[in-house]
Amino acid sequence: QVQLVESGGGLVTAGGSLRLSCAASGSIFRINTMGWYRQAPGKQREVVAAITRGGNINYADSVKGRFTISRDNAQNTVYLQMNSLKPEDTAVYYCRADWGSPTRLYWGQGTQVTVSS
Question: Is residue 102 reached through a cis peptide bond, with omega within 30 degrees of 0 on the bond before it?
Fold first, then answer.
């Protein structure tokens, strides 16, 4: 079992920055990939960025060059630094952990990010 707790969301004006954190607890030694997803009203949840235990990273095209994902394995925490935020980045952001084999998915409770124009 894994528990994920996100923090760092909020309201920011366009062009601003936010940093999201996701702290994992429980059986963290079997976590492989950790990622950030988002879901805007009326839209499907989509991947924003993901990072493997070994540090391989992938970003959605819409956030490349603006967002940076990082992972502190010692602190069992994954971060999402979001710069140059746009109104279209407004969504609930969720942390996800891919655990064990076969993979089991764990989700955090979500944190709201609102970008005003």
Answer: yes
The token duo for 13 is: 């004006």
Place of tokens 């009203």: 41
Local structure of 106: helix, strand or coil: strand
Dist. CA 73–CA 28, nearest whole Å = 9
One-letter identity of residue 102:
P
pLDDT, averaged in runs of 10, over the chain (117 residues): 95 98 92 96 97 95 98 90 98 96 94 97
User: Rounded distance, CA 57 to CA 96, Å?
Assistant: 14
Cβ atoms of 22 and 40 closer than 8 Å: no
Q: Among candidates 36, 67, 30, which has minimal Cα distance to 50? A: 36
